[in-house]
Specification:
about 200 residues; 11 helices
Amino acid sequence: MVLVLATIAPLVIVGAVGAALLGLISVGAMVAVALAAGENPGMITFGAMFLASPVQWWTGRSQVRVRKYLGIVFFLLALSNGVMFAIESGVGAALSAPFLVAGTVALALAAPLFVTSNRWSQRRLGMRRWRLLHKATYVVAVALMAHVLLIGDIGLGFVLISLGFAARVPAVKRWIQRRADRRRGIADPRPDTPALQLER
């Protein structure tokens, strides 16, 4: 469902822009449609991307392609949202309120992640530096949560991001991995189990 939403939302925005360029709708209507198609779907898309790693721990199936797709779509939706807001209120308004500052920070930090979301960048930066750069995803997540909290519009995206953070708490992560191992029939050795007993 999230993948469908992440695909439909950009198409709605492109359709609104195209309709405005053809004179079928006003610029104001284009902005309204694009903002509606970008805000909540963008948060949900990011939240789903942020949960991709916990899903991978649980299922044992790689979520790299899904995470990459959702990350790219999130940035495009966030960029669209920023552009539409600038058309509606002007560029200077981006820093006129705390919730706008938080949204601007999230978009600014997401930009280098979007640009480097490819194998060429991984090779050029090296995996260690590339992974370090992409740790900024956590800061983007915090900025997005602050953005919606300051707006007062907590929705599914906020919940998904919160679950993503909760799943990364070491104790919770170990619990997820142990449950997943049991589901797959993998032994669950305890750290304090003597080596000889493990061999038996």
